[in-house]
Fold:
Amino acid sequence: MKQIPEYIRVPASMGSLQTSLAFVRFCLASQGIGEARLREVELAMEEILVNIFRYAYAGRNGEVEIACRLEGGGRALVEVADRGIPFDPLSHQDPDLRAGIEERKIGGLGVFFVKQLVPDVRYRREGERNILTLPIEADPML
Amino acid sequence: MKQIPEYIRVPASMGSLQTSLAFVRFCLASQGIGEARLREVELAMEEILVNIFRYAYAGRNGEVEIACRLEGGGRALVEVADRGIPFDPLSHQDPDLRAGIEERKIGGLGVFFVKQLVPDVRYRREGERNILTLPIEADPML
Amino acid sequence: MEITVKKEGSASVVSVKGRIDALTAGEFEKGLAALMAGGDYALVVDFKGLEYISSAGLRSILSTAKQLKAKGGEMIFAGLQGPVKDVFKISGFGSIFKIFDTEEEALRQV
Amino acid sequence: MEITVKKEGSASVVSVKGRIDALTAGEFEKGLAALMAGGDYALVVDFKGLEYISSAGLRSILSTAKQLKAKGGEMIFAGLQGPVKDVFKISGFGSIFKIFDTEEEALRQV
Ligand SMILES: Nc1ncnc2c1ncn2[C@@H]1O[C@H](COP(=O)(O)OP(=O)(O)O)[C@@H](O)[C@H]1O
Ligand SMILES: Nc1ncnc2c1ncn2[C@@H]1O[C@H](COP(=O)(O)OP(=O)(O)O)[C@@H](O)[C@H]1O
Structure:
């Protein structure tokens, strides 16, 4: 079985997106997780990371740490940590999905996607860090 | 133009290989460096990284930092740093390429490949760190 | 991401290949803005070749659609593949936009 | 990396697809060792489908070739593509091993 690194640490900036997504993809693929689920997790991860890049450090430089632990049985645990302002995405309000084009508010879909695609996502604040934990199973959600 | 992260930091273990190579590939591809040169740099980077994973920390845990700076004009600078034992690959002796199968020593090709593929590679020890600098131009060496 | 545009009668067909993510959504939105600036208010967006879209892409779509609506124009969609269709579904975009299986069907309705 | 093996008269043809790097060289070397253990001492290694090889792969090759030589056997190569050919050239392996354009030519010389 292929080993995977325990984590990757990158600057909290848009340039880190591809590398971070590739890291998570390698990790999950090594667990035999299939393409359909990989794409869903990739989407959830993009939303989480882009939010950290945009909002967590409020314009200052910062870093993101992504850990990927194999749990056996085709399951894995992805953890995303930053040292930005405290933010619990789970307490963020869902967008109104039924509003028409004119009434519909722009934005608010990123956090919502994460919850839809990884329903068991957990948040905790530990010292100075925001930590999101994403338990990943092999089956696609959608 | 696509931004790239300034660096990536990963554990000094085999599991970090794919992610690290993907990072360097994204960075150089964003400079318009073509597939032929990308493959050569990938080979040089594999050799450098695998050596750090194997030898630098002598069995203890450690990290590798890889930085990629765009220099403009299709050129980039890749830097690889570790906090392992001091090792200057440029002072390592080249293998005897003409020895036959029985006489030929196993090993010693990794460092040699790096020098062939990135002739301008530089080494410096800075405090506790080994730093390799690889200036990358668009044209393939071979 | 690769965008191509062609005129079909009074409509413009925008075909997008590859990925619309946080890195490419800006370019996609600029392409749509350029069409609006040129007076094209009837847009058929063909996503046959689109593999991936994230919320950044939906943001570009909604922002453009609001502007089109204000000008009496419209943006309709064709050719959504599996993952893109899923994203339209969970975001509600599948019900606030008109979506057709093929570009040809979309053009008949525009 | 994907390895397939077939018998051709007294020789075994080992075809390798994909990448032989530090992550996969061990598996490649084990495959060769299994053939030797089974008494196959005439190996034709077909690299037609090989895209990448690093020093880890050359290490496996040289180690196997030394053992084969000690047993009076041999390992020859066929179908090297551009990047793999380059690696054979700069390492000197291009001159210490017999290399043929195609598997068929190699089998004629074995
Ligand atoms: N890591 C974060 N740190 C601080 N605030 C955040 C973070 N992620 C999201 N937010 C806040 O939550 C809101 C909703 O995020 P999201 O659903 O991705 O939609 P959008 O970014 O399009 O507004 C953001 O507008 C931002 O105010
Ligand atoms: N980062 C490093 N730290 C310490 N020693 C190293 C490092 N990289 C290489 N070496 C030493 O240099 C030698 C030659 O390395 P290399 O050319 O890659 O061949 P090989 O690893 O096959 O022996 C190694 O055997 C090792 O002793």
User: Anything to note?
Assistant: Chain D has a mean pLDDT of 97.
